[in-house]
Every structure is written in C-alpha cells, then in structure tokens.
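Input (structure):
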C-alpha cells in the first residue's frame, strides 16, 4: 500500500509550519513582525517549497542552494525586515534551528506513540503536533527572556574631578518615577551617595514617593545628577540630568550591586 499526500496538503502543512517558524524567529530576533507580514512570508515559503521540491526535477543539493535558501531570505525579509548580512545570517540560523527542533519533536512523537505512526500522513494531526512543539518553543523563549530581564552593569557617575564606579542592576520591576516630571528614577545606596558630595545641591533635591510590599507608602530623598555612563555587555550609554533616590540600607545582601536602574534608561 502506498500513502499519497496531495499538493494542497503539502502546501497547507508548509504554510502553517512556516508561520510557526517565522513567529519563533521574529520573537527571538525581537522583531515587530505583523501577522499580515508573517502570513505573506509563510505563503511565499509554502509556494516556493511546492515549486522547488515538487515541480522542479533537479538534484536535492541544487534544490537547497538555488531554491530553498533564496526563498528563506525572502521570507525573512518580508516577515522580519532583516537588514544586513549579519542579521540575515542570524535570522536564517534561528529559522533552521527551530525547524530542526520542530522536526525532531514530530519525529519523537512518531517513534514514541504508535497512534502518531499509524496516522503520520494525517494533515491535521501533523499541524496539531507542530502547534504543540511551537508552544513549547515559545515557552522556552519566554523563560530565557525572563532569565535575562534583569542584567548587571557597570555605572560610572560623573564627579567634579573623577568618575565614581559602582555595579548596578537593570531591574524591569523598578517602576519608580518622579511624580512631577514623570522621569524614571534609579535607587542608590546611601553609602555610595555619601561619597557624592558634589551632587548634594539644594536646587536638585527631589521627594520621591514609593510603595512596596510591607510598606504601603513611603518617601525617598532624591536628587538630579548631571550625568552618568552605563556599561552594559559591549555597549556604553551616556545619560544626562538623571534622577536617583537614596536608599538607607543595602540593595543586595551580598553586595552584588549598589544601584538599581530603571529599564527605560537603556531604552531611551
């Protein structure tokens, strides 16, 4: 008995799988790919696959080099608007990696469950299993993102004669803002603040209200400082006229960081 899979089924499977893969790739690349662009790119991918693999009778190696690679580039351009060779290589790498993961997941299900093997040509079962693999990948991406949300960095605060260097934490949970200007506020340990005599100017003084667990309302003294430099990974960012609130205590039990930065400082 020979199993038959029709061209419309091949197109549908590739269209939906490409949609999964492009969504995962866009999420990883942090690209704001719209659903319409993802659909368009998936259509191009599915149509290209049918054209190259099914209709063009050429060796498989040529199919990959002259067919699927150009189609992959077009898909990434349409869906994620990748720019430059480096970003394109990263995008293609992630796309192929996710394709490998989904393919491996489907193969695992086929070998693990006899039901999957008996119905391996069921289009809807393949799409459902692909969706399960897609959701698992999305869960993994969210976990990695959650782990990386809080980053350590080096902060150099400009003084009159020299720079004061402290280790900082970029905390996505820091929503402290100045009620008058709406500017985000960093939290600095009092011990570090005592070393910043040059910044203690009456006209730069602020009152920063806050609330936290165990203390519904509170007040922190704050100051506007002339500027600082953030060194994060391989990047350096200069900021001027920023607000810091003085915390009377230790921000980190082990002293890993002495200042907590708002995430808006890196996004600005």
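Output (sequence):
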């Amino acid at each position: 008995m020979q199993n038959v899979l029709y061209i419309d089924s091949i197109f549908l499977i590739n269209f939906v799988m490409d949609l999964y893969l492009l969504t995962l790739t866009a999420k990883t690349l942090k690209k704001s790919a719209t659903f319409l662009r993802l659909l368009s790119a998936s259509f191009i991918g599915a149509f290209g696959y049918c054209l190259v693999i099914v209709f063009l009778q050429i060796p498989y190696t040529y199919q990959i080099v002259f067919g699927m690679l150009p189609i992959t580039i077009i898909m990434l351009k349409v869906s994620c608007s990748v720019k430059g060779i480096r970003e394109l290589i990263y995008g293609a790498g992630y796309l192929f990696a996710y394709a490998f993961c989904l393919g491996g997941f489907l193969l695992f299900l086929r070998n693990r469950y006899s039901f999957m093997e008996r119905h391996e040509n069921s289009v809807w079962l393949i799409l459902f299993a692909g969706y399960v693999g897609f959701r698992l990948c999305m869960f993994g991406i969210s976990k990695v993102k959650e782990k990386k949300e809080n980053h350590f960095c080096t902060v150099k605060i400009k003084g009159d004669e020299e720079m004061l260097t402290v280790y900082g934490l970029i905390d996505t949970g820091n929503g402290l803002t100045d009620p008058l200007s709406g500017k985000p506020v960093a939290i600095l340990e009092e011990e570090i603040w005592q070393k910043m005599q040059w910044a203690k100017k009456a006209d730069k003084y602020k009152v920063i209200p806050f609330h936290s667990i165990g203390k519904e309302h509170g007040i922190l003294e704050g100051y506007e400082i002339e500027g600082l430099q953030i060194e994060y990974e391989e990047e350096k960012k200069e900021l001027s006229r920023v607000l810091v609130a003085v915390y009377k205590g230790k921000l980190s039990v082990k002293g890993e960081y002495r200042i907590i930065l708002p995430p808006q400082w890196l996004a600005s």
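Notes: The chain has a mean pLDDT of 85. The chain has two domains: 7-148, 151-267.
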